[in-house]
Design the sequence.
């Protein structure tokens, strides 16, 4: 009788577990949607103050390279005061490159609002799982992109001829060890809307504490001279050595773009990539009017292209 009872309990738990997991994911997806709404509100507050949306990335020339070389201040840097990050905005040295030693604290600063609750990322990683839309297809980040946020864009609301309610503003992305952090206006904070993809790699590995945008520099420079785990974030001595490495080593040596998986015929330095979702069946997208919609993986890619383009002159797609 005891075995029968145990078997029945096991069956009931097996039936209940998927429902519990689905409920938890629904809650995480709702929280993710709220994060995107907050970012949209911040962008509109910026627009109300300056009559333009912030540039996707600021630099003197393009196209933008994935190497940490250049000014590269991202759109997120511009909205820091509007997402309750006033102290970070004060510390940010806007006269220097985002990769300069003076901006080391900003590059290592973590903002929880920028991370999807469904993401397996280690909470202390200074990265964003959200990206602004710069173009409707794969292309280098430059001044002639057709999204809302691109190189030196500063788009006005009236420049969005398709209408803000029909134009995608921000969506989701994965994080990898070549990600330069939320402060960098590269593929780390900008993506095109050519497709929604699922990462073929084991993204659970991204939860390891050592996998942050700058750990590789520290690990390669110190693994032979120091004992212990060079990526352990709880070791204050290690953290100080990492800071030293980031300041002393030229930024162009921080990452190796040969590790970036890119389609044939595209330069790794200029590859940006599409959107990526941690949610099982689709992706959250916030539009220019602040509305957040959950778009299915099965959505026609043509729809993605149309909602990414700010002035293609075509009728808006049916998203219902």
Sequence:
């Amino acid at each position: 009788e005891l075995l029968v009872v145990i078997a029945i309990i096991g069956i009931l738990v097996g039936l209940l577990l998927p429902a519990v997991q689905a409920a938890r994911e629904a809650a995480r997806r709702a929280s993710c949607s709220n994060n995107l709404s907050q970012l949209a509100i911040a962008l509109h507050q910026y627009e109300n103050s300056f009559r333009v949306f912030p540039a996707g990335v600021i630099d003197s020339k393009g196209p933008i390279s994935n190497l940490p070389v250049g000014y590269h201040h991202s759109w997120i840097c511009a909205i820091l005061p509007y997402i309750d990050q006033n102290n970070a905005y004060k510390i940010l040295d806007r006269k220097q490159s985002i990769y300069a030693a003076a901006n080391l604290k900003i590059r290592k600063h973590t903002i929880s609002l920028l991370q999807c609750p469904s993401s397996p990322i280690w909470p202390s990683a200074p990265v964003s799982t959200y990206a602004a839309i710069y173009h409707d297809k794969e292309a280098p980040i430059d001044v002639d992109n057709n999204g809302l946020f691109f190189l030196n864009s500063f788009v006005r609301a009236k420049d969005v001829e398709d209408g803000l309610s029909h134009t995608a503003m921000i969506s989701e992305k994965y994080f990898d060890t070549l990600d330069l952090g939320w402060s960098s206006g590269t593929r780390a904070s900008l993506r095109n809307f050519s497709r929604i993809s699922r990462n073929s790699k084991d993204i659970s590995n991204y939860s390891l504490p050592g996998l942050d945008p700058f750990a590789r520099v520290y690990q390669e420079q110190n693994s032979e001279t120091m004992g212990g785990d060079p990526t352990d974030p709880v070791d204050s001595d290690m953290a100080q050595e990492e800071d030293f490495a980031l300041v002393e080593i030229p930024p162009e040596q921080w990452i190796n773009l040969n590790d970036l998986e890119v389609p044939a015929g595209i330069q790794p330095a200029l590859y940006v990539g599409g959107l990526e979702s941690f949610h099982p069946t689709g992706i959250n997208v916030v539009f220019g009017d602040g509305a957040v919609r959950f778009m299915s993986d099965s959505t026609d890619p043509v729809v993605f292209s149309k909602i990414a383009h700010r002035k293609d002159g075509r009728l808006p797609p049916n998203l219902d």
User: Anything to note?
Assistant: Residues 200-213, 217-235 have pLDDT under 50 and may be disordered. The two ends are 52 Å apart (CA to CA).
